[in-house]
Amino acid sequence: MSAHGGWTVATDPGLVVQRTCEHLDQAGEFPLPAVRECEDCRAAGTGWVHLRQCLVCGHVACCDSSPKRHAYAHAQAHGGHDLARSIERGEEWAWCYADDLFLRPAR
Ligand SMILES: [Zn+2]
Ligand SMILES: [Zn+2]
Ligand SMILES: [Zn+2]
């Protein structure tokens, strides 16, 4: 199993051959934002459920359970920004939008 940028594909016990993500080396290290909010939702006056942070540029936006799904919109609008991590307290996982894969910290 290879690890790049601190993330690795989460093992899926239902699969004999594990899937791979070729975007892991694009993941950078970003500090948690000082203010936890979705800027796009604040500007639009909409609410969000959970927050995700793009692992390519550090942009914070709302999750797929939120009405506006700004994190997904960010990935769609910016080619190559396929990785986003959860910044909810107690959660340590990330997601690859290109592969629909769960990632976990490699360390
Ligand atoms: Zn990927
Ligand atoms: Zn939002
Ligand atoms: Zn980004």
TrEMBL record:
Domain named UBP-type: residues: 19-107
InterPro entries for the chain: Znf_RING/FYVE/PHD (IPR013083), Znf_UBP (IPR001607)
SUPFAM superfamilies: RING/U-box
Annotated PROSITE patterns: ZF_UBP (PS50271)
GO molecular function, one term: zinc ion binding
Protein name: UBP-type zinc finger domain-containing protein
Native source species: Kitasatospora camelliae
